[in-house]
Amino acid sequence: MREIGHWIDGKRVAGTSGRHGDVYNPATGEVQARVALASKAELDAAVASAAKAQAGWAATNPQRRARVMMALVGLINRDMDKMAEVLSSEHGKTFADAKGDIQRGLEVIEFCIGAPHLLKGDFTNSAGPGIDLYSMRQPLGVVAGITPFNFPAMIPLWKMGPALACGNAMILKPSERDPTVPIMLAELCQEAGLPDGVLQVVNGDKEAVDAILDNEEIQAVGFVGSTPIAHYIYSRASANGKRAQCFGGAKNHMIIMPDADLDQAADALVGAGYGAAGERCMAISVAVPVGEKTADALRERLVPKVEKLKVGPWTAGDDVDYGPVVTRLARDTILQYVESGIAQGAELVVDGRDFKLQGYENGFYVGPHLFDRVTPEMDIYRKEIFGPVLSMVRAASYEEALGLAMNHEYGNGTSIFTRDGDAARDFANRVNVGMVGINFPIPVPLAYHTFGGWKKSGFGDLNQHGPDAFRFYTRTKTVTARWPSGIKEGAAFNFKAMD
To answer: Known catalytic residue: 112?
Structure first.
């Protein structure tokens, strides 16, 4: 059995707590490795070591830190396929999707090469008589990232890139479900020139998380996961005086107007709703066609596309649309939501409950499901299912459709498909959701903009990547300077007359 430990002070080390978690191959349902689960003592020791290493890293000028980011970009590109294979084997997503996971994290590292510019302060000359004002951005010290199973490369890179480029040391606590790729990334950071101890990867469960939240040396915590855990981490971190950015669940709506290109909208819904088995916080899980005619026409296009989806292991070829979900518990929870939708009166148009894959009967596969005539009080509408389940909620008007997105407790992403520029502009301006797509199903911003949801999808006032990340991982110091005047005149050789 393969043993996965931690990455501490520039090397792989075994865990000492005596506790372990199973790492599954979701395609087969078999345990493929054991991962060490750190104790509080192990976590605290990693933090203490990181604090010692951080001082020297912070003293390294921003341009040299940026060169490490530059070297890391090349190394990630070099090992892309190798990491994608490992990622697919532990998470279950297709090989192409695994490469996309790494690529979207890589783009943030590319952005971090510009750290010298992003870390510049402001200067005001002669703010008063002989007085200059200037500000500087300085690292926080030791920070922590707690990252989810569904993007085991992208989210760690989103956290570590800006944190390290700003001069911090980072404690990364990845998901214990797919922990290998984060350690591979740490090895590449070392190869790129990052000093030992500046990045520590500590695997663990709630004990390690609570140790992070209570450790006084850790100045900031970034988290991505479910909303209940995001709220817990934000509350406990804030109570302990830490800066926190915590991103939670989602229920992303796509509004389909009567004038939309319905073929384009149907294609977008299938990709955004079922890609990665729906295990994305930006997945579209609610389609909102406006008008019965629009709804009927959209459904007619969706059904054959959903029924033709190919589900299988990542090794089955490039034509696999999505793979298994991450655990047996995740599969069972998704199917429970499907049963609740039927019981509460939704129409199950495409039924994937009996899906079985020959030769992979023990894998964590969930067939595609499509519901119609879903209403806002149903559990499948209110809750984040995080699986290959798309719900159609029919709206009688644009205002009703807009209200559905605005009144939901989650506010991560949303989109509208329309040919009407006025409707699109009104939607983008009014909807109380953090990321908006116009004829674009999954509006994940590029690395030089920021990523973050509103309402119960996000806790904290600064978003991930882009300029906000550099604000989050630094604190501003403002200096008011006045120098004595007259020194430049040189020595005086005569008595000065009295005033």
So the answer is: no
